[in-house]
Design a protein that fits this description.
With 219 residues, this protein is of the alpha/beta class. The chain has one domain: Spore Coat Polysaccharide Biosynthesis Protein SpsA, Chain A (Alpha-Beta Complex). It is built from 6 helices and 12 strands. Strand 8 and strand 9 form a beta hairpin.
Length: 219
């Protein structure tokens, strides 16, 4: 798509897996990061790949290779600085979501082009959510209106740049870029999420994704 950039964040150190998980294979010769980059190249004319410091890239050709920062937000900020001028929409994707469907990319891009400052896939939770305190007691949060925020997330380039500039001068506890937009007064909207858009956090997640790739090769 014209005037669309994708930042693929693949700069994690792999503290949970012992190695950077983005370089683990889902199938022979197919790494998590490879699938994320393929998805990005399928929808954008510009792809920025954010890698750990010192990492070498031997996958699909991308527009820019940059080194990540100490946090996810810092890695995205580095990717933002590598974008070409005059881009309208930037999608932030993550190698830890290697099975994100193409439709999710198209839907979040369309939502931003229709006027939202940001858009993300939203998967409603099927069960009641509880919060556990430090003493192990549970408190009910609820279920109605609650869901999981997935990637890819799309943004107006200007809105995301402004939000990052504010965060750089007024740092606060922020988990991801859509939250930055919220705190900066922007409008974040939801598109349909997918249960197959697995976030690879544990070995069980990795094995489930491998099973999906094996049983659904065109996923």
């Amino acid at each position: 798509m014209k005037n669309v950039s994708v930042i693929v964040v693949a700069a994690g150190s792999g503290s949970r897996f012992g190695v950077p998980k983005q370089f683990l294979e889902l199938a022979p010769g197919v790494r998590l990061v490879d699938l994320a980059v393929e998805s990005a190249l399928d929808v954008a004319d510009d792809v920025v790949l954010v890698l750990p410091p010192g990492a070498q890239w031997d996958g699909h050709a991308v527009s820019s290779l940059v080194e990540g920062g100490e946090s996810r937000l810092e890695s995205v900020a580095t990717g933002l600085r590598a974008l070409p001028d005059h881009q309208e929409v930037v999608v932030v994707h993550d190698a830890a979501h290697p099975l994100a469907p193409r439709q999710a990319f198209l839907d979040v891009i369309d939502a931003v082009r229709s006027g939202a400052d940001a858009a993300l896939p939203f998967l409603p939770v099927p069960d009641v959510i509880k919060r556990r305190d430090g003493q192990g007691s549970l408190w009910t949060v609820g279920r109605d209106g609650l869901g999981l925020a997935q990637v890819p997330m799309a943004f107006s380039v200007q809105a995301l740049q402004r939000a990052h500039q504010r965060w750089a001068t007024e740092p606060s506890d922020v988990w991801e870029d859509a939250m930055l937009i919220e705190l900066n007064g922007g409008r974040v909207v939801a598109v349909e999420g997918s249960p197959r858009n697995i976030h690879i956090v544990t070995n069980e997640d990795l094995e489930m994704a491998r099973s999906l790739v094996t049983t659904t090769p065109d996923l």
